[in-house]
Amino acid sequence: MKKIILTLFTLSFILSCKMSADFDDEKEVFIEDLISKMTLAEKAGQMNQYNGFWDATGPMPEGDYQKKRYNELKNGQVGSMLNVIGVDEIYALQKIAVEETRLGIPLIFGHDVIHGYKTIFPIPLAESSSWDLDLMEKSARVAATEASADGLNWTFAPMVDISRDARWGRVMEGAGEDPYLGSLVAKARVKGFQGDDLNDINSIVACAKHFAGYGFSEAGRDYNTTDFNHYTLHNTIMPPFKAAVDAGVRTFMNSFNTLDEIPATGHKHIQRDILKGDWNFDGFIVSDWGSIDQMIPHGFARDGEHAAELAVLAGSDMDMESSLYVSKLVGLVESGKVKEELLNDAVRRILRVKYELGLFEDPFKYCNKQRSDSELASDNNMKVALDAAKKSIVLLKNNNQLLPLQKEGEKIAIIGPLAGDKNSPLGNWRSQAVYNSASSVVEGMNKYKGNRIVYEKGVDLYYGKTNFHNRVKINYDDKSDFGKAKLAAATSDIVVMVLGEEGNQSGEGRSRTNIGLPGLQLELLKEINKINNNIILVVMSGRPLDLSWEDENIPAIVQAWHLGSKSGDAIAQVLYGDYNPSGKLTMSFPRNVGQVPVYYNFKNTGRPSTSIEQVTNSGYADVENSPLYSFGHGLSYTNFSYTNFSIDTDKLGIDSKINASIEIENIGNYKGKEVVQLYIRDIVGSIARPMKELKGFKSVELEPGESKTVNFQIDSSMLEFYTYGNKWESEVGKFHVFVGGNSNITEFKEFYLTD
Length: 755
Ligand code: GLC
Hints:
Blueprint: H1 2-37, H2 40-46, E1 48-51, H3 65-74, E2 80-82, H4 87-99, E3 108-111, H5 124-128, H6 133-149, E4 154-155, H7 179-194, E5 207-211, H8 230-237, H9 239-246, E6 251-254, E7 258-259, E8 262-263, H10 268-278, E9 284-286, H11 304-314, E10 319-320, H12 325-334, H13 340-357, H14 369-375, H15 379-392, E11 394-398, E12 411-415, H16 441-446, E13 452-456, E14 462-463, E15 473-474, H17 482-490, E16 494-500, H18 521-531, E17 535-540, H19 548-553, E18 556-559, H20 567-575, E19 640-647, E20 651-652, E21 657-666, E22 672-682, E23 693-702, E24 707-715, E25 721-722, E26 728-729, E27 733-740, E28 749-753
Helix pairs in contact: 1-13, 2-12, 2-13, 6-7, 6-14, 6-15, 7-9, 11-12, 15-20, 17-18
The site of alpha-D-glucopyranose (GLC) has 9 residues, from loops.
């Protein structure tokens, strides 16, 4: 019997390999055959991407460009479109491409499905604070299901830029400051979007962006120059991109910034040598919006033709909204400046992804109105959004156990311009969310009937409707509603203040030099605090804010980000203790903007400082070096104690393992979830090494009084880094290992890596 099973297994294994090999062979044969039929102009057309007639996410050309583009579409000179929304419009454009062009090559339709499509999830920085990889995969899957139901087959996500700079508005799109966690999040999101099979109707192509180094824009100013060394590139910036490739991501998007003084779009080394060479990436790279053309103002290209030449030589396969590939590549090949094989390589990659999506089999497979009607913003999808929102909330401070709120007998004043705001929680990059469709804090709190609740806005944060393109108009002078808010506070037991950033105050083009509460909010908070100090501050923001005064004066602080469609319900359920907060920060909160960039995996320097009194040490005269709230910080309504931390040996060989174990006990009164974190410090390296590096984490849920032993396996692969010798390897020597509930842990065990 056993023999029969083994034979059957072997047969099925061979068959499956043969099938996938056949699929690959079939795909490549089909693609080569199609390429052989294409004219130069059609090849250049496949490399051309235009924005739809929908909401642009970048600057559009002047004049009547629509007619010209319509004709190019009919002439087979468009390979992809972005921001075309809805089954009808996508169907109409796909019909032209498939039925009116000479070769009928289908378009691929892209859009920024960053944290949801119609059902909006917490902004990615918030969701990463859940440290729940399954959840992040699931929310990406829901987003993919909704987007594909509405005709789309490609998202420009996940954004995997590591950043340490809260001035940069795009930190809201990423997973914070750590490459290890960022890599795991990148993998989860790619798998969520692409699923196990790109041909699956719910799968859409993912896009790792922005390649590379965009999160290091100098001074946090968007689109600015970067200046980092190649060790930072490899040890900090690249790992999440490599993780995305290992997870099977099929597209990349390059970035607006220069690195090594070269615009990423024209950077041959990172695109051809590393991504397509070392990493064997066989998908395609799309430029970011107009970034090929922008090599002219960068001072790297003489003119459009030169920019197109530099970009295609560097390995940029598709041109988003420069119109330079479609207009210049034919001439460049005919003049001999660019070899046609470079176009063939780019087109091969683009056709490969279209083939894997099944677009050649059925170009209209995503155009099913029934699916769209049933999938978008469904109750089930909203349930996932609520779960994600609750798990993304981080309890920063909770003195005198002010939280959770009693469910009856309390007089509660809800005060603040974001308390009733149904727009801001949707955040930036909100895709097809309906304006003002988020649940507000007031709505969430009013579902609990046992307390007396009054609501006063107290002050306007901003005026008018906001969108992707406009600057939010902040109120800096109208305090006329302060009085009503002060009265509400005076006649209440507890004040829940909801303050922070409007939803479009973070995101692309939203850099801020002042990262405090915008407008008159801090002034209002100080006025209310004079009247009633029983304040629970709920902070909505797309980035770490400077909360130093708040931390000094306010007893309870909850970081509630921009949590998406179910924001208010999630916040209310956390404030009332129906969900015990479990989030942990993935980005450090600075004491003030002068401290930025501040991050947990910093280098020790030759004069480490532990106090502002140490004058000639690496510190400041006015604030200590540590951030206000550290990476990995997040409180619970219960307390956890860590004891019996041990390692089973202090000698680690190249092929052996060390087991680190610790006992964690819930010593409080609430059931709670804790993310137990493992950090390692490499004491001496061929280059200066960080004080700590996250190398593992495990979530444990414990009833009051319950305890568990958590074990981590350490092996030499976890100690590898990009060394002075420009190789990924571990180096023998002394290491310290830390295990605990945040990155401030000081207790460590010492071990040695030996040859
Ligand atoms: C924007 C962004 C990029 C986005 C693209 C399309 O400028 O930089 O992240 O995917 O254009 O909207």
